[in-house]
């Protein structure tokens, strides 16, 4: 293979990777926009954005300084979301997001954001790993969050 042909192949691969990254980032942005919209509408359909095998991990810091980390099975978390949405609406428990970033991670995209709890008046980090399911629908495969009581 000549140097010019090799360079052409490498450049073609770079453009393909760049195009994939842009479409993956666009899909991740659409999923995150839907996640936020469902949350603001208190729509229990937000549970359907999670893969059935998603990893859900939360680090909770108590006023005493004690920190507990818990992992919740995806099925239980999805059921919990559906149950608490009416309660969240009644309490005005709403989050807003800032400093959102998107980074390719393998065949998926890592979304990082600062989440502000309007009810409890604090900001905490949120990390979501999203990607296409075998059927092509983009889902949340991992949620790493922090909270306070």
Structure commentary:
With 149 residues, the protein is of the alpha+beta class. The protein has one domain (3-147): Roll (Nuclear Transport Factor 2, Chain: A). 38% of the residues lie in helices and 41% in strands. The protein contains two helices and six strands, in the order H-E-E-H-E-E-E-E. A six-stranded mixed sheet has the order 2-1-6-5-4-3. A hairpin with a 2-residue loop joins strand 3 (95-105) and strand 4.
Low-confidence residue ranges: 2-21
CATH architecture: Roll
N-C termini distance? 63 Å
What Rg, in angstroms, do the CA atoms define?
A: 19 Å
Largest sheet, strands/sense/barrel: 6 strands, mixed
- Give the number of DSSP strands: 6
Oligomer: single chain
Mean pLDDT: 88
**Domains, number:** 1
> What's the CATH first level?
Alpha Beta
Structural class call reads: alpha+beta
Cross-sheet strand order for the largest sheet:
2-1-6-5-4-3
Helicity, as a percent range: 25-40%
Question: What is the beta-strand fraction?
Answer: 35-45%
How would you spell out the order of helices and strands?
Answer: HEEHEEEE
Describe the global form: globular
Tally of individual helices: 2
CATH level-3 fold name: Nuclear Transport Factor 2, Chain: A
């Amino acid at each position: 293979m000549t140097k010019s042909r090799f360079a052409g192949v490498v450049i073609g691969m770079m453009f393909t990777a760049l195009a994939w990254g842009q479409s993956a980032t666009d899909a991740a942005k659409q999923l995150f926009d839907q996640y936020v919209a469902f949350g603001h509408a208190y729509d229990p359909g937000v549970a359907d954005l999670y893969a059935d095998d998603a990893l859900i991990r939360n680090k909770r810091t108590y006023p005493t300084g004690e920190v507990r980390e818990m992992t919740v099975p995806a099925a239980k978390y999805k059921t919990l979301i559906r149950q608490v949405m009416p309660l969240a609406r009644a309490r005005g428990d709403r989050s807003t997001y800032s400093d959102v970033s998107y980074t390719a991670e393998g065949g998926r995209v890592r979304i990082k954001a600062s989440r502000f709890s309007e009810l409890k008046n604090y900001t905490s980090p949120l990390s979501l790993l999203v990607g296409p399911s075998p059927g092509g629908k983009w889902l949340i495969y991992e949620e790493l969050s922090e909270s306070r009581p």
